[in-house]
């Protein structure tokens, strides 16, 4: 089944941009075009037509059509057909005298001219990379203290995109797919996202429609005078750059409730390829859930798990000498294998099966002391001589059928040595709070807990200024009842007062002003009366 962004959402996005107080200059959206193509400080892009392949030209034209095309896929564009959203207010068409298919070469001229006065790019013979201060320049000269609504930006950019679904999506599902598509499409990193966009898409969801908006309906929103009237012709077959489809396979993948995290399959595939991964993230993002998924994936014949802590030692992990008494009552020195060495030897005896070793709280232990000389064996293929033979074992190497998963809380500051010791030997997968899961699966009357946690985390970032102090979704997940995650308000009140608030007190070093800012003055007091708590919570977070 095919679905599109509703006509109402597209027209609302036009209204939004007409009222957005940003500079109408084309440089802002040419920057977004460059990000779409992949520009960075080190990766260059060019708009020199002679340097582009036909495939690149088609991709550039598609990007321009998505960003500002005033025509649909049933129309052939001629001139005066491209207007970026920041130009809606003043009807600033881009290169109105140039036919659409010839505009790429004019972009080069525009950027070179603008870049001379307000330099955003390093220009090496028309190969452009970003200057290190591009953010400050764009904020000062073009955004003028504003950010772009992600919801309206998405509705506009994907207005002509066809989405294939196996079933009719509701607004939450449709918007979840759109959000993942738009973030992937423009390659906006997390740092740039914070100053470029207002992350409002989960608060202003986008409705699916079975009909697509027409180019004429978009043009009718603007009062063009005769000289600016777009020139288009009807066609029976659209050009390749006018076709944008998200397949059923892609929408199914994006519908998975993984938030901004890799899918379960991607994590398993990474482990099987790299053999050693570390799952990182703030408390509550689901590291234990992922290790359980790996254990229960059916890939591994046996799993062993250990939790590192300050007193965990080489003797616990690799092995040690012990004193025992023999039959003649004589004291003798013997050795015993540690947990890891024992598991390594077990895996070696069963080469036909895979074995999984899980190290919880990896960074809580002293890595150098726990691994000792055997840390070199994490570079697969290395064999090291043990400092002393243990149960007759003189050397250690890790077999190819043994896989290692570590977990690590990034809010724990004890990670500096970890980075030096084993960073290059593991694939690090950073997990983020999963707002999608809370919005879709966790019920607290009519509250959207995904949006509420997002608000709290945004306030934490603004107040405490540390991305490692945000909260994971497990703070808002109740015990499961059957197939459902349902809170009653009494249980939720207790969770909020006795789990979430103490965490914020610790993170803020008991700064009451910071806590007031994050959850509101009334809730910061730890209200015990259920009715008063509900009123205060609704007043603070019902959006």
Automatic annotation (TrEMBL):
The residue ranges of the ATPase dynein-related AAA domain are: 277-426
EC class, as a word, reads hydrolase
What UniProt keywords are attached to this protein's entry?
Hydrolase
The UniProt entry, under Pfam families, shows: AAA_5
Give me the segments passing through the membrane.
Answer: none
**What Enzyme Commission number(s) does the record list for this chain?**
3.1.21.-
SUPFAM superfamilies listed in its UniProt record: P-loop containing nucleoside triphosphate hydrolases
- Does ATP-binding appear among the keywords? no
Gene Ontology MF, one: hydrolase activity
Give the signal sequence positions: none
- This chain's protein is named 5-methylcytosine-specific restriction protein B
Source organism: Siminovitchia thermophila
